[in-house]
Design goal:
Elements: H1 3-60, H2 65-77, E1 84-90, E2 95-98, H3 102-105, E3 125-128, E4 134-143, E5 150-158, H4 160-198
Antiparallel strand pairs: 1-2, 1-5, 3-4, 4-5
Helix pairs in contact: 1-4
């Protein structure tokens, strides 16, 4: 192979390597964005559903504290995989019912501004908890069925598991990109080296 053809082949292979890197970066970035979007959507929908259940109980059985206590204290604490807590406060900010241990995870002051009672929350706010764990927080006002009582719902979801998933994904993608680069370079070398050896020396 002549030196000019060899140089052209080398440039083509380098260009192919760069395009492969760009393609791998694009694919990994797109998959990461999809994963993040899906996790965030599922978390927000889960929390919105929990708030909807609380609102329904308050509207249908405003004086049934037993039903609220069963939901907030017992049912939530019995969950194995979804690590979340609930709190119900009165208009003056006094805690009426909360999941045992919630104070140590997220005090009332940690929550963002509360959503109005006639609106349904769509997205929570991410904040660090007292022990540094990543949390997703929602707070909404609710008016009792009679209109005489006003309550504040606070819901917190521990998203440290999702954070670990994303961290592992980023590490695996970095390894994949590195291996892709090494394999591409080795493939190019396997093609070019025999021709370099065959080139006549000046």
């Amino acid at each position: 192979m002549s030196s000019s053809l060899l140089k052209s082949a080398e440039q083509a292979l380098v260009g192919g390597q760069n395009r492969l890197k760009s393609l791998l970066n694009l694919i990994s970035g797109s998959l990461y964005w999809v994963l993040v979007s899906n996790l965030e959507r599922e978390d927000n929908q889960f929390m919105a559903d929990e708030i909807y259940v609380l609102r329904t109980i308050l509207k249908e059985r405003p004086n049934d504290l037993g039903a609220l206590r069963e939901k907030v204290e017992w049912e939530v604490a019995a969950r194995r995989f979804e690590k979340y807590c609930m709190r119900i406060l009165n208009e003056q900010g006094h805690v009426l019912i909360e999941t045992p241990g919630m104070e140590a995870i997220a005090a009332p002051s940690l929550f963002p501004e509360s959503i109005e009672a006639d609106k349904m929350p769509e997205r929570g706010e991410k904040r660090k908890g007292h022990v540094g764990r990543p949390l997703l927080l929602m707070a909404v006002w609710e008016v009792g069925d009679s209109g005489a009582q006003i309550f504040l719902h606070q819901v917190v979801l521990d998203i440290s598991y999702e954070t670990a998933i994303l961290s592992n994904y980023r590490r695996n993608m970095a390894i994949l990109l590195f291996l892709g680069t090494i394999i591409s370079a080795a493939f190019s070398g396997a093609i070019l080296i025999p021709h370099l050896l065959d080139c006549p020396r000046a």
